[in-house]
User: Fold dTDP-glucose 4,6-dehydratase from Rubripirellula reticaptiva.
Amino acid sequence: MRTILITGGAGFIGSNLVRQLIRTEQYRVINVDKLTYAGNLFSLRDLESSPNYTFVQGDIGDGMLMLDLLHRYEVDGVMNLAAESHVDRSIGSPGDFVQTNVVGTYELLEATREYWQSLPEDKSASFRFIHISTDEVFGSLGDEGAFTESTPYSPNSPYSASKASSDHLVRAYHETFALPTITTHCSNNYGPYQFPEKLIPLIISKAADGKPLPVYGTGLNVRDWLHVEDHCTALRLIFESGRVGTTYNIGGGTEKSNLDVVHSICDTVDRLTSSGKKSSDQIEFVRDRPGHDFRYAIDSSKLSKELGWHPSVSFAEGIEATVKWYLSNQDWIESTRKHGYEGQRLGIDRNDGDDAAVITSSDMTDAAPNQNEDCTFEGVVFNKLGKYEDSRGWLIELFRNDEVPAGNEPVMAYMSQTLPGVSRGPHEHVDQSDLFGFFGPGDFRLYLWDSRKDSPTFGQRFTRIVGATNPQSVIVPPGVVHAYKNISLHPGIVFNAPNRLYAGHGKQEPVDEIRHEEADGSEYQLIDA
Ligand SMILES: Cc1cn([C@H]2C[C@H](O)[C@@H](COP(=O)(O)OP(=O)(O)O[C@H]3O[C@@H](C)C(=O)[C@@H](O)[C@H]3O)O2)c(=O)[nH]c1=O
Assistant:
């Protein structure tokens, strides 16, 4: 039985590939995944007891770990699926993509080369390094034509540029060190276990929830849809029989405009939920993605000719099965929400050049229903923070005592860093007012609950997304419970200037703070929307 090390095997394509390889009973699989936001062990729970399956949490960028695992499990091949993969996130946080997709692939190649060079002749000859890449490295097509294996690289997004860079490293390790590599380029995958930030799972879950369905620009952009099962079959064939030192394109042969895909999903959701509503009424044309590639299409004839592969899942049956899967796996969808992503729009507004975490204000309506409403809690005061920019940089005034409502005048100040997906609170003060400043880096979802029994808004909750893309100060008076969650991909900064000294003068008094997160069954839960 041959041993394959799969990187990124807790992700969408990775977990489907792991499942297919185990199902053949011809392979032992070592699955290494960093478990970032899109890595989800919930997707592999049915494999945990399989004797041919081992999971290791790890980062491909940890070369020592990768080398250790290659030796420890006497690996016969590596299939590299570990990657940041969402174009919109790459627009908001390109650095994460360079780190994982370029530096990570380099470290993995180095470890693999050292291991492979230590193998005896027979194992060395049959060893394979399969690098899974994307058709986006070829850029965008017009109305005609399709990508072939000789199409020149022309990446347009930080995501596709990072994948293109990783492809070139893989090629160089073959050309320079003779490492037996093969690179594949696929079109858009869909199917079970896809993180609901990508078009198809995102639209399915929003259609089912009766939320607006965000279509970028005109919706006429075209993608070639490949069911993930067909993609995994192709990868297995390429691992077994592909020609070393070459590349293979893997396409679904199903080109559709985004609007057509969204309508197909709506019709299927309506039919399967027999809700009587027309989900397509929820379609909203929102601001286009910066640098939005118009069309991808793949010519898979080389793969078909050499290895006899053809897509077997039609789009009609694939989309039906996929909608059914998401509708009946709500628990899996819930498990994807622990990192703070709940379907909000991702991607940066090029105009502000800010290191905006990921959200653009005009598309927030479905992220926090009351996003555009004013907060009517007495004493809560939001103030849009203005950024003064010049050639030296920028300045933001956080507060002025001639503007702060009397009684809230700050007596101290602090700043805090909060990691991605992490929340602070819910907290409440008996006597203290806070004056928070949210101006980035990072975006936060701010939660407020009015717990003042004599308040006309007693028992009400208010949420608002604040931070890099919506710089705000907010005064929170005593009795208003407050919490905030970093919904960005990187650490976020918050400023606070309370009107009371923490622990009183000389830190000699009890702290005025009720930490509701420490109370079992607290009514103050950070649920959203
Ligand atoms: C998320 C989303 C996308 N779109 C559009 C953008 C795009 O034209 C189409 C698909 O968007 P996605 O972000 O799902 O996928 P896409 O932009 O085609 O990119 C994907 O391409 C494949 C080849 C890969 O390599 C993946 O990693 C991924 O990068 O739908 C919307 O209109 N609304 C939305 O809310």
